[in-house]
């Protein structure tokens, strides 16, 4: 962990984000601003691997999700999932990734998610919790892995670890009409290996919007001491307007270190 960071901080990029962002990642890691790269392995981009290898920075891989055809919750997707996983594995192997993060899929069932993830026999696998619903091209989709029971089942059957996405947990709590504080505490009890962090535009929303840190309504002080303890591995997973620079990411970290505005407390 860099001396200036309370956490091990990671920046999220897609494997299509070649260019200026790559130079920024190297610079920020060298300066101690962040500690690692979380790279979403977009299908069909293996040709970019030498560029990412050349960065020489610690890397965590995020597997594709339903928007790229990877859906562990549906048996009919299994053959395609295997093909996409093989591409993801090649990214992870080449970049010496510590973890590969997986989503539970949409619709289908959590039993299928657990079965397929177990069949991959991937020792670096982490299952990420999801909101109960998401939106894609105007349609509402059910997400698998929005409850502690679902995540616990996948972990037990596949032997994988856990990535706790804090905004996802809060959105899921809203959907299931559960106390956000209880939901976070129950997810934390599963022993996350790492975390995803973003802000939220409203405290009652059901769908994650990846709001930049400090530009939403989350009261970070309510969960940072208990959930995000010193030394935790935390990827900042937020939307950015620029795709050729990480200046917005740097601004977020500055706000995080300086103490984010306290506006709304979670329930």
- Average pLDDT score: 92
Please give the share of residues in helix.
25-40%
**The CATH homology group name:** Divalent-metal-dependent TIM barrel enzymes
User: Which fold name fills CATH's third level, the topology?
Assistant: TIM Barrel
Radius of gyration: 17 Å
Q: CATH top level?
A: Alpha Beta
The stretches of 5 or more residues where confidence is low (pLDDT under 50) are 260-267
Biggest beta sheet summary: 8 strands, parallel, barrel
> How many structural domains can be distinguished in the coordinates?
1
Molecular structure report:
The protein is an alpha/beta fold and 267 residues long. The protein has one domain (8-258): Divalent-metal-dependent TIM barrel enzymes (TIM Barrel). The chain contains 8 helices and 10 strands. The protein has helices spanning 20-30, 49-55, 78-94, 110-120, 148-158, 166-176, 180-188, 247-258; strands at residues 8-14, 36-40, 59-62, 100-102, 125-128, 133-136, 139-142, 161-165, 194-197, 233-236. The strands form 2 sheets. The chain has an 8-stranded parallel β-barrel with strand order 1-2-3-4-5-8-9-10, surrounded by 4 helices. Helix 4 (110-120) runs parallel beside helix 5 (148-158) and helix 6 (166-176) packs across helix 7 (180-188). It starts with 7 loop residues before the first strand and ends in a 9-residue tail after the last helix.
């Amino acid at each position: 962990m860099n001396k200036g960071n309370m956490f091990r901080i990671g920046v999220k990029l897609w494997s299509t984000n070649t260019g200026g962002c790559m130079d920024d990642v190297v610079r920020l890691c060298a300066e101690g601003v962040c500690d690692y790269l979380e790279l979403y392995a977009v299908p069909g981009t293996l040709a970019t691997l030498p560029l990412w290898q050349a960065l020489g920075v610690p890397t965590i891989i995020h597997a594709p999700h339903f928007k790229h055809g990877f859906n562990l919750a549906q048996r009919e997707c299994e053959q395609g999932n295997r093909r996409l996983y093989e591409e993801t594995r090649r990214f992870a192997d080449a970049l010496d990734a510590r973890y590969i993060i997986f989503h539970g899929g949409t619709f289908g069932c959590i039993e299928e998610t657990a079965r397929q993830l177990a069949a991959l026999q991937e020792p670096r696998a982490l299952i990420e919790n999801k909101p109960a619903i998401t939106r894609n091209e105007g349609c509402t989709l059910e997400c698998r892995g929005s409850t502690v029971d679902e995540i616990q089942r996948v972990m037990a059957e596949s032997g994988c670890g856990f990535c706790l996405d804090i905004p996802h947990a809060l959105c899921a709590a809203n959907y299931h009409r559960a106390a956000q504080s209880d939901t976070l505490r129950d997810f934390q009890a599963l022993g996350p290996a790492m975390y995803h962090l973003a802000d939220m535009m409203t405290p009652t929303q059901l769908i994650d919007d990846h709001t930049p840190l400090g530009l939403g309504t989350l009261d970070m002080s309510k969960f940072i001491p208990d959930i995000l303890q010193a030394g935790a591995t935390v990827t900042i997973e937020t939307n950015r307007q620029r795709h050729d620079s990480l200046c917005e990411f740097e601004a977020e970290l500055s706000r995080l270190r300086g103490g984010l505005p306290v506006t709304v407390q979670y329930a």
